[in-house]
Amino acid sequence: MSQRNQTLGEFIIENQASFKYTSGELSRLINSIRLAAKVVNHEVNKAGLVDILGAAGDTNVQGEDQQKLDVYANEKFIQTMTNRNIVCGIASEEEDDFITINSQDENHQNKYVVLIDPLDGSSNIDVNVSVGTIFSVYRRVTPVGTPVGLEDFLQKGINQVAAGYIIYGTSTMLVYTTGDGVNGFTLNPAIGSYYLSHPNMQFPEDGRIYSVNEGNYIHFPQGIKDYIKYCQMEEGDRPYTSRYIGSLVSDFHRNMIKGGIYMYPKSSKASNGKLRLLYECNPMAFLAEQANGKASDGFTRIMEIEPTELHQRVPFICGSKNMVGKAEEFMQKSI
Ligand code: AHG
Ligand code: MN
Ligand code: MN
Question: Average of pLDDT values for 220-247?
Fold first, then answer.
């Protein structure tokens, strides 16, 4: 079979043997994610047609308004993984606490927990701009057959066994890693299959795009301000180009393909920035490193940060290796 026509299903089967643990459980998990993603994709794409936009009336644990599609995506991913009895626990950006699945039943020997940002970039839904889903997978550390505990979710990013995102964009793509490079699959909506369209994705080592919410400039730490000025300076291949969608998944995806840096620094308004370590930063950091990129909080490798709480936020700098390295230099010089 030529690689050009390879479907995600075929790719999963062919690569299953290369996973560290070959019970097939991780393959089934990726399978259930691709299925839920198809359902959510269908809903996202008809968002402009039906009256499902607007806040659902709830606020999530971060005190933000939830839009209906956030709730829908959250339910679909949780339902799919619960019904298929594939994981032993799920933590979601939209849930206050983690969810335990059948872990007390001795017949359920599931080893994996999933952490998920069901709909990322939700403020972009009602303006027809790309949104995404981010997921992160760990092996549980507590014994199989016992209820999952907080320690199963509060693991360092370096322990991830898989991570990925779905981007609901001009086309829908599933991009993921199991620690052996990053591969991107594009959904053919007519057939409902994903095809390997972007094998072995790599961040260019240098890039010319910087992505940051510059409206917060005056609140940024000095190192970030200095790096932004460096990006704008007329010298060599600079000034760089500024691109910021406000959907982490979309900004990351573009920067991985074209070369660039994404930054959500801390600010005088938000001492740890905005993005969540477990649902957003760690999975993106794993993907970035697997694609020859880099992710840091300015001082520490993201995947080595010890998590202390489920909804923890951290400053996030991620993208082309040399650009992230340069931003770190400015951060470290400024203290
Ligand atoms: P979510 O929709 O899951 O809450 O995440 C939104 C995140 C991220 O996707 C995006 O890059 C960032 O928030 C944008 O924040 P600002 O509007 O503050 O720039
Ligand atoms: Mn998000
Ligand atoms: Mn979200």
Answer: 98
